[in-house]
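Re: that backbone. Tokens:
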């Protein structure tokens, strides 16, 4: 990935013509330069339009791959060279270190109030909002209708309970489907797949007061059910603990997977593969799950260079309905503001996203406001998939993770 810039490139802020402030923005790339849909184009156009309206503020934009951006921003901060604004996946570490502006320091009250309430709350550390949600998504249960028909299943009646998932997976297996249920518990997003099953049992990574509950009985029950009912009988792909989400999504798009949990980007991928798919609420232990996984990416503003007023002016521009909707419209993601969400609900070109949008108010988000979450998340990603191995006791595994989480929380 490269960098796009408006105005003169700079290694600091406040450099430019007389009275001019130059802001540095580092943003993640949601597209692919080879496909011609890199986020560089969006930010270039936005920065150009902003500077035309605000001649005294220029924006130097750098767009980086998701593979490198989080490490790069951390290095910039460690080198005492923080950007003014970063758009990445997590904010709490920086907020906990006192490096970020509060949302109330930057945005007028109407803009703050336009954020969806549960996302604004997810952006809080100690009940103060530092993270500004940028885009979000939820999860639905995907299934291949043609493979259902091949197995003698009704393609309009997806499973609603775990027991139905197993019985349908058995039918798909008997019909010769390569992967009846796709279970990605590899290090790419193991914490997400596991959480979706835990939610189906009424569990989660934190309890009702925000305390870590990684080894809750509901969570143990969910992982044991997965191992005993899907993995051991051979109703998933081999070695779920080594399988990443991208691999299983690709297999679904190639018509090899009967069922899996997916997010909005799986829709165009499956359509390109000419897969006739259906979507449904996540199955739960005794009925459809009461909530689903919600994931958000974040904007944050660093205090180092003191450009609070200019940063706020630019972010106000970014979160206008027109500009925010332009981004989510381009990448089939969900808006984080009420105004843009209402617009999407009226846009029939995005009717496939309406079901994901409907789930957003009740979605369960990771405990992003915990400074300790970064370390806990890394532990979950790398190790929770081992619960599928015969040699591992799921309860012992989760109890070890709980102790680590409590230790990290104590350091926080």
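Recovered sequence:
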């Amino acid at each position: 990935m490269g960098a796009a810039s408006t105005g003169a490139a700079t290694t600091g802020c406040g450099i430019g013509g007389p009275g001019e402030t130059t802001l540095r923005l580092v943003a993640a790339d949601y597209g692919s330069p080879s496909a011609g849909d890199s986020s560089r184009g969006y930010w270039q156009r936005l920065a150009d339009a902003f500077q035309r309206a605000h001649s005294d503020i220029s924006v130097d934009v750098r767009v980086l791959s998701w593979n490198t951006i989080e490490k790069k921003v951390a290095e910039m901060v460690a080198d005492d060279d923080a950007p003014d604004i970063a758009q990445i996946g997590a904010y709490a570490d920086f907020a906990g270190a006192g490096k970020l502006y509060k949302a109330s320091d930057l945005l007028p009250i109407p803009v703050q109030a336009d954020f969806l309430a549960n996302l604004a709350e997810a952006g809080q550390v100690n009940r103060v909002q530092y993270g500004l949600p940028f885009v979000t998504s939820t999860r639905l249960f995907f299934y291949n209708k043609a493979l259902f028909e091949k197995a003698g299943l009704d393609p309009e009646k997806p499973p609603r309970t775990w027991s139905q998932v197993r019985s349908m997976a058995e039918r798909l297996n008997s019909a010769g489907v390569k992967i009846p249920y796709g279970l990605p518990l590899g290090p790419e997003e193991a914490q997400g797949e596991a959480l979706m099953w835990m939610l189906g049992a009424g569990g989660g990574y934190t309890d009702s007061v925000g305390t870590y509950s990684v080894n809750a009985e509901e969570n143990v029950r969910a992982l044991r059910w997965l191992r005993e009912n899907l993995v051991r009988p051979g109703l998933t792909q081999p070695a779920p603990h080594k399988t990443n989400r991208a691999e299983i999504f690709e297999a679904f798009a190639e018509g090899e997977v009967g069922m899996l949990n997916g997010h909005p980007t799986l829709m165009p991928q499956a359509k390109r593969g000419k897969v006739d798919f259906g979507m449904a609420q996540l199955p739960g232990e005794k009925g459809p799950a009461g909530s689903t996984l919600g994931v958000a990416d974040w904007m944050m503003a660093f205090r180092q260079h003191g450009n609070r007023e200019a940063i706020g002016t630019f972010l106000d521009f970014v979160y206008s309905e027109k500009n925010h909707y332009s981004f989510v419209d381009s990448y089939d993601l969900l808006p984080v503001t009420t105004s843009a969400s209402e617009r999407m609900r009226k846009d029939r070109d995005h009717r496939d996203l309406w079901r994901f949008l409907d789930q957003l108010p009740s979605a369960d988000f990771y405990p992003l406001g915990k400074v300790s979450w970064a370390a806990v998340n890394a532990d979950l990603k790398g190790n929770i998939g081992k619960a599928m191995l015969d040699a591992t006791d799921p309860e012992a595994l989760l109890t070890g993770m709980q102790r680590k989480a409590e230790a990290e929380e104590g350091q926080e």
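The CA atoms of residues 103 and 130 lie 5 Å apart. The longest helix spans residues 394-411.
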